[in-house]
Design brief:
Strand order of the largest sheet: 1-3-2
Helix content: 55-70%
Structural class: mainly alpha
Radius of gyration: 21 Å
Shape: elongated
CATH superfamily of the largest domain: GntR ligand-binding domain-like
Number of domains: 2
CATH architecture of the largest domain: Up-down Bundle
Distance between the termini: 63 Å
CATH class of the largest domain: Mainly Alpha
Number of strands: 3
Amino acid sequence: MNSKNYSFNQITSMKSLSSEEIYQEILQKIIDLSYEPGRLLSENQMTDEYKVSRTVIRAVFARLQQTGFLEVYPQRGTFVSLIDLNYISDILMLRTALEKEIIYELISSLPDEELEKLISKLEENMEQQRSCMHEKDYHGLFPKLDSEFHHSMIHSAHRDSLMAMISPYMAHLARWRNFDVSLGNRVPELIAEHQDILTGLKQHDVLATQKAMAKHLDTINGIAEKAIQEYPGYFVKR
């Protein structure tokens, strides 16, 4: 028996990742644009990188293809899917409709005490967001605070399960958000939009808050043409 002692981290690093862990890791690289749209992904490369069989990688690739993040072309290979702005627009419309309804429920139905607790929580979140003004992309602290800002409202309206229903589509939205924020240096703008949403909520103004939310989630119209012009290879041709 080898008497050599290994640290916990060394032992952990020697273990092969599970199929699920490999799936999540590759998916995250696609979402954060480490694997850019249109990139060729090699089964052999992934097999060597993760020290697993080709059967495991093929299963992972199949899942990513089913969720729309990989495209397989016979005789050519497997590629990271291009961003379909029409599809992203549809997802944004669905999410906007849900979050506008949540705003209506919060202002019209939530007991005053609970609404005030929510507003206080959002104000604390906004304080932290303001420290992120300098962030140039969607990889710092701001993404976490952004998610918490929206989730706080969703949770207060007891609509977690409803949002979970559309969660399979949110990864596509997350990839677009990574691109959108980096291209337009939009963190300060998004923080200002969050403040408009909070202001409307504090004033119990349903229409103003819904309008602010719709503006915040409409990330296609203002930047699509610039995105396609600067990165034509990243997008499905219309």
